[in-house]
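re the bet — no i am not wrong, look at it urself. input seq straight from the record:
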Amino acid sequence: MSNSQESKETPKKNSIHFHYKIHEIVLTFVLSGILGVIFFVWTYAYEALSPILKPLGLSGLNVGIWMIGGIIPALIIKKPGIAFIGEVFASFIEIWITKWGLTAIVWGVVQGIGAELIFLLFLYKKWDSVTALLSGLSASLFSFALDFYFSQYFKLKFTFNLIQASAYAISGIIEGGLLSYLLVKGLFKTGALNRFKTEKISEIDNHFN
């Protein structure tokens, strides 16, 4: 067989394939559904703390949880599009059980794009603490950009918005990225997700050892 024939039959190393198995799709929607309910519960914590944090520009410290809808499924399934699909479906669940209504899907789309972007930048080859933290950061900043216009943050002082953006970023990294990573790592250690394991737990642990 000639080299030209081999190159046609062998998938390109950096090519991106959107092929999902039934159990991967089912797990994505189940996880996102559960996370959507968690978002509903978190709404009460967010509203309880907002009167204290909002005047200080720190209400963003509570938004990171809303970023896990895409990051957790993505770290488990490890395939293109899962972060976006997961975040959007979790926000779809929010439509029916939270006060946000249809606007929830708008934030879900934007946050999903922000989370997915990081995995795309790494060509869907890296699923570790680095991509998890960056994905949480990216999703939270995308969320802040949306809030900036919908909540008219542009009417506020630059320094106040800088504080707000920093709060979003910190929350996205810790609540969105770190929490997602630790939860998924813990699940893999229990053996519950062995079907989706593509790297040894010892290799995953090295990111925090």
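see?? DSSP finds eight helices and no strands in the chain. told u. also The chain has a mean pLDDT of 87. so pay up
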